[in-house]
Model the fold of this input.
Amino acid sequence: MFRYIVKRLLHLIPVLLVITIVLFALLKLMPGDEVSAYLGTNSNITQEQRENIEEKLGLNDNIVVQYAKWLGRTLTGDFGMSFKFRQPVTEVIGSYIWNTFLINIIALVLALLIAIPVGIRSAVKKYGAFDNAWTVFSLIGFSMPSFFFALCLIFFVAVPFSSFIPLNGMHDAIKLAIGYDSIWDEIGDVARHLILPVTVMTVISLAGFIKYVRNSMLDVIRQDYIRTARAKGLKEKVVIYRHAFRNALIPLVTLLGFQIPALFMGAIILETVFLWPGIGNILYTSVMDRDIWVVMAANTFYAALALLGNLLADVCYALVDPRVKTS
Amino acid sequence: MNETLLEVRELCKYFPIRGGFWGKGKGEVKAVDGVSFSIRQGETLSLVGESGCGKSTLGRTAIRLYEPTSGQIFYRGEEITHLSSRGSKKLRSKMQIIFQDPYSSLNPRMNVFAAISEAMIEHGITQKGAETNERVDELLTLCGLAPEHKYRYPHQFSGGQRQRIGIARALALNPEFIVCDEPVSALDVSIQSQIINLMMELQEKMGLSYLFISHDLGVVRHLSTRVGVMYLGSIVELAPRSELYENPLHPYTQALLSAVPVPDPSVKKEPKLLRGEIPGNVNLPSGCKFHTRCPYAQKICEQEVPPLREVKPQHCAACHFAGEITYDS
Done:
């Protein structure tokens, strides 16, 4: 198993390398020029100053050399300087990434906690009222764009109840300025800010999860070995959970591997709508501001996440299914 | 022979058909339609018939894996038709089933030991630990498997070995009665005979009774005490084995037997081919269900349902003209 993981990790390196080459080329193809992006709005400069900056940013080099320089820096852990924040990219991303993890992990755990029992029950009582109600819910959740749902929540929930549920952001501006009474005060404040974005993310991913759990369970329930389990005279609970659900987990594990990166990417839009200080929000504003080293680092992070998600799915697959050989 | 073990009276099992816009039922599939028979201790009753004639459904309903639609089931004289789940749990250890497909009837995520021991522990037959361990080894040896393979998973075994696991699993609860639902039809012919011999050996050793479901008339002839022929959810003929094979009374049985290939190329044989298709079991034909395909059908066959009557001692047939139609093999 250990050897298998190491081997798979080594396989990821060339893939990631190709992805960064494509990303780099795309960024360089973007319209606009980097000097004005570097200077921001303050771009009244002489030709000489401009040439100095171009030299400083390494823009005079061949694009291949530029990439090689970026790669060399990155491998030593230096992702460059952010034009906008005037601080190292690692610090910019490092200070925001945990906010993204926070929102995603809460939403993922909530979605799974709801989807698994709901999906199992829907499958066991197929076409019942419970199943039909959740099918309608899933359909709505699937079809509705996340930003639209987010705007609906802001308008119908946050506006009328603004004293308790904040519109956006992560901290109360006044409290942040004058300081919190205690750590609990801060946690409570962040929790209230989490309500809306976590609700949107949970509902959106719940729709897919329920369908997957339900279909996967339906697939397993009609298998012959479930009948065998019933013939053994086992309790229905044992049949459903020990025999059926364990087998239904196999495709779910794969789904999870794909779903984790998908959640992070979905968060890009949501973080922008809710002004959540996460990596998605940073990526969005950095693209708008042509803050290319931040964009490069954030995109590389997303690519690595997707690849690791796949690897995680394969490893878990081998763990839960005795038929899969890892050699 | 001795005591009657299982008796089934007028058993019906209908499956509702879902459909329509509101999911209301559009009718029923009459898989088993008023079947009566009994099985005595130590005997093998075989059920034969075409695919979809309700053999498997009958077998599964008889041991309460399916809820019967109507009719009665008695086990050792006690009615078990509507036993609660707690009551049927006790019953489960007495009545077991061996399934048709040894590939799909074993949970792929359970090793052999877990598959066999699970039910024993659930029913309190053995305690966890050395006792269970010993019993599993014993069962595996009994079924011709090596006990040291017990921590392997089903996919590491061949079809014949898997069916042996299925048999060991069924025997784990010390049953008296086993429904064998086409236990060999998914196996190679050479493996079939091994499994059948194993089953006959076990029957002798443990005094088991079998309800043997098959469409292989050769296998049935080899191991049965009595044979029942099913057509569209009903038994059309029921007789002791040699009587049925030598002297079939129902035209359907006659057609089935004449279709059995003779393993001798020099024998010229004209099988009595049946006309038409088997009718669907949603809207059953009126009168005798077989009249649409019967070469001897008369007016009465369309109107009156022929009862299963004892034409000769122990030999029952459901045909208005049973005994009048001759059969030359």
About this structure: Chain B touches chain A at residues 18, 23, 63, 65, 85, 88-89, 91-93, 96-97, 99-101, 104-111, 118-119, 122-123, 153, 155, 166, 169-170, 173 (CB under 8 Å).
